[in-house]
Amino acid sequence: YGALHLPTALFMKAAGIRMRHLPTNGGGPALTAILGNNSQVLVSSIAAANAHVKAGKLRALACLSTKRAASAPDVPTMKELGYDVEFSLWVGLFAPKGTPDTVVARLRAESKKAVESEPFRKAIANIGDEVAYLDQPEFAKFWDADAKRVETAVESIGKV
To answer: Terminus of the chain with fewer CB atoms < 10 Å: N or C?
Structure first.
């Protein structure tokens, strides 16, 4: 199961429907498949699909996050549409175990500075994404909670 397959399976379970899975080697080939009319449904990041939505090649049906995306305020969430589905993709910064505390402290300070910079925020907004920075202690808590959510989701669709 990949990052985009799991929310699709969660939606099928919530909607009480079945769809045939089209295996691909990632989000890029999945996007190519729907643009080429070789699939009818795609779960994708906003960043990957946004240009195609704006060009009229794709239609955004729902957002899987807890709230509507700032870059797509007219697109309802799954919960607004009556489906108990929430799923978000995120990116984190990691270092090997045993990395010296001074290096970790520097990485934390510099990444926070970069994330809070106007050029970074503009670049992220331009691709349709949003910044939700968590420093290491908050990220560790988020990581633990997200791992439990994903585990529960995988169990709920019968894949464990």
So the answer is: C
Per-residue pLDDT tens over the stretch 47-87 = 889 899 999 999 999 999 999 998 889 999 999 999 999 88
- The domain tally of the chain equals 1
Structure tokens at 48: 């990957």
Q: Give the domain extent around 17.
A: 5-156
DSSP string, 44-101: --HHHHHHHHHTTSS----B-SSS--TT-TTSPBTTTTT--------------TT--H
Its sign, for the CA torsion 11, 13, 18, 22, is positive
pLDDT digits (tens, 9 = 90+) for 92-116: 999 999 999 999 999 999 999 999 9
The tokens for 10 are 């969660």
- Domain of 129: which CATH number? 3.40.190.10
Nearest-angstrom CA–CA distance, 114 and 108:
10
Pick left, alpha or beta for residue 128 (phi over 0 → left; psi -120 to 50 → alpha; otherwise beta): left
Find the helix packing angle between 136-156 and 5-15, rounded to 10°: 50
